[in-house]
Amino acid sequence: MSNLLWGAVAGVAFGLIAVAMMLPMSFPDKRTALLAAFADRFAIGLVIGCVQAPGPGWAVGLGFGLLLSLPSAIVTKAYVPILVIGGLGGLVIGGLLQGWGSAA
């Protein structure tokens, strides 16, 4: 499979994990919050699958995970949980799709 397809698969998995973690929480509009979280995390996987950036894959993933999580963190003012989960997810997806070692 191509990195794009693997990125989409990783994004769906990451989105489902994020939604599952949020299910016990209460929100004024829970459906919108869960949909936004899924879309945010799906985008992280998809972008990491598409991008070809210099550096080790885990670092590229970490960077995109943080960058793509930042708008949600700013809007919700829940910086730590959103950035930590986005960064860790990006790091893992980047490492799996693009490698854990230094770039060639």
- Number of extended strands: 0
Give me the strand/helix succession: HHHH
- The structural domain count equals 1
Helix/sheet category:
mainly alpha
Give the percentage of residues in beta strands.
under 5%
Q: What composes the largest sheet? A: none
Kindly provide the radius of gyration, computed on alpha-carbon positions and rounded to a whole number of angstroms. Answer: 13 Å
- Unreliable stretches (pLDDT < 50, length at least 5) are none
The end-to-end span amounts to 21 Å
What value does the average pLDDT take? Answer: 94
Q: Helix proportion of residues, in percent?
A: over 70%
Count, helices:
4
* Backbone shape: globular
SSE layout and pairings?
Blueprint: H1 3-22, H2 30-50, H3 57-76, H4 79-98
Helix pairs in contact: 1-2, 1-4, 2-3, 2-4, 3-4
Structural summary, described in words:
This protein has one domain. 78% of the residues lie in helices and 0% in strands. With 104 residues, it is mainly alpha-helical. The relative contact order is 0.19.
